[in-house]
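Researcher: Good morning. I'm working through a list of sequences from a screen, and I'd like to move beyond sequence-only analysis. For each chain I'm collecting a predicted structure so we can compare shapes side by side. This is the next one on the list. No need for commentary yet; just the structure.
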Amino acid sequence: MSEKQECILLLPAAGQGLRMGGDKKKPYMLLAGKPVIVHTLQACLRAAAFSRLIVLVTPGEENLFEEEICKTYFNGNKSITSVPGGITRQDSVFQGLKALQGNVGGEAIICIHDAVRPLVSPLLLCRVIAEAQLCGAAIAAVPLTDTVKLVDEANNVLATPPREHLAAAQTPQCFKYSLLWQAHCRAATTPASDDAALVERLGVTVRIVPGSYENIKLTMPHDLKLAEQYLAHREKEGV
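Model: Good morning. Structure tokens for this chain:
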């Protein structure tokens, strides 16, 4: 990978995880005996694509991440660092971009991946990165399996969009640094549900790379059980 195409991972991990419950935040909950975020970072390291892996943690938890995660599971790997995130996911990513300002080229690829998507495959990461290198903006997504209804505030159905034109966005989402920085600067007071939406507002076309239905985001308690089943199957199959 050339210097201009340096690739840096931003891993948002500052969410509260209120829907999950429990006394630990989602990234630190145990999944098959290890914290969720450890599984995620291990998958990202196996991709062998990143010069830096920056974890966006809750402000004040930098030492916790360093002691409980970096030193315990990664032998203090110097390519893994933490930056205080923000109140929202969008704030956190912007803080990560600010930390890189002046220390990264505009052509560098910034790969954003949810800390609580531990089942991402290294191959998927590499495919999305490669597409972003070609066109500047790419995300993983999967076709919808359910019919979607557009509804109003009173839950009246307004329309049924054609399912073949809809996709469920996942992470990784990868963008050239210059594009992502511009998108976040313009959207400082205008939230969006993901980074791709911010880039779309610039008029930039975002390409979709086929994702995986196993690449689930851990949101509810049953998601942990499902993730454990996927991991057990992978271990059985030697994947």
